[in-house]
């Protein structure tokens, strides 16, 4: 009996001590070291696409295990040494064409459409001016946002010549950081400064043009719009600025407040279907650096972390019905 009472007392004391301890952040998965293990892409269950700048590569990570499912550097596509430099500091990678390709931009000046199966560059160019985002248009052409170039550039994709030397059309957009195609409305969206711009595309593949249709103002105090990404399953997009994160309701044409662990300097937001967390990238490296070794959810819970990684943006490797048809092929 005494032994039983002693066990109860010890359990009570342990419980009391645990209540006094400060509860740490919930970490659903935390690797113990920087070791990279691999998994076949077709065996991975929830895949994130990371722009990993320490080694100038695109990395697909199976989030539940932390294993590398696929990776790409410019050398894998047989580009020349000079062309490989265009893909230093990759800053966006998004899945396109039913997830058979990845559309990549890099601060080194390049944009490329990479076929996942064999890592072939189906299209590549050098827009320059710090390309930060790209999008596939309905006719296969590619539009690129260059931030320091203050420019949107449209390149004609013809399927024959992978390298395209110059754009067929350019449009000035201050500090252009993002582009998203809206299939329902047949328009292109881009956020700049404290505005969201709605652009019309003429649909002429060999003579493309973009024109501004309308602008939507964010609340006063916002500057330097950065990321723009569709919300999976909704007629909406997330948009981030230096100060805030909003959800833009495309039907109501309204900016909605968003609950997120950190409002400022969010580099990317990505959503997936049911069962997927919304993943967020923000710089944690200190100083003037802009990368992090970890990917979090909207509450700040760590979903992935690897020592030595310098991640700029993270996207889920999922379909995008907001922008593309159910069957989307080259």
From TrEMBL:
Q: Which SUPFAM superfamilies does this one have?
A: 3-carboxy-cis,cis-mucoante lactonizing enzyme
Extract the InterPro entries matched here.
DUF6528, WD40/YVTN_repeat-like_dom_sf
* Pfam families documented for this protein: DUF6528
Q: What is this protein called?
A: PQQ-binding-like beta-propeller repeat protein
């Amino acid at each position: 009996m005494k032994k039983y009472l002693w066990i109860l007392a010890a359990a009570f004391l342990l419980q009391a001590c645990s209540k006094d301890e400060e509860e740490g952040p919930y970490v659903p998965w935390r690797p113990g070291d920087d070791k990279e293990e691999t998994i076949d892409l077709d065996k991975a269950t929830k895949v994130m696409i990371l722009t990993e700048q320490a080694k100038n590569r695109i990395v697909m990570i199976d989030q539940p295990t932390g294993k590398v499912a696929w990776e790409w550097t410019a050398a894998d596509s047989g580009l020349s040494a000079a062309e490989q430099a265009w893909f230093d500091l990759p800053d966006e990678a998004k899945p396109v064409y039913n997830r058979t390709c990845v559309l990549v931009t890099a601060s080194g000046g390049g944009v490329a459409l990479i076929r996942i199966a064999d890592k072939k560059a189906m299209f590549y160019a050098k827009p320059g001016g710090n390309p930060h985002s790209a999008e596939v248009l309905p006719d296969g052409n590619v539009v690129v946002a260059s931030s320091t170039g203050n420019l949107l550039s449209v390149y004609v994709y013809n399927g024959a010549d992978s390298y395209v030397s110059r754009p067929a059309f350019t449009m000035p957009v201050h500090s252009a950081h993002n582009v998203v195609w809206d299939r329902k409305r047949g328009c292109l969206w881009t956020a700049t400064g404290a505005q969201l711009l709605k652009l019309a595309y003429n649909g002429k593949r060999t003579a493309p043009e973009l024109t501004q249709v309308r602008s939507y103002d964010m609340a006063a105090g916002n500057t330097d719009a950065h990321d723009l990404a569709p919300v999976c399953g909704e007629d909406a997009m997330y948009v981030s600025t230096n100060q805030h994160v909003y959800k833009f309701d495309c039907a109501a044409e309204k900016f909605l407040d968003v609950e997120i662990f950190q409002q400022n300097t969010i580099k990317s937001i990505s959503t997936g279907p049911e069962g997927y967390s919304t993943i967020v990238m923000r710089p944690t490296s200190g100083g003037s650096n802009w990368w992090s070794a970890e990917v979090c959810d909207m509450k700040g819970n760590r979903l992935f972390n690897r020592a030595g990684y310098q991640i700029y943006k993270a996207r889920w490797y999922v379909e995008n019905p907001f922008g593309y048809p159910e069957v989307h092929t080259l």
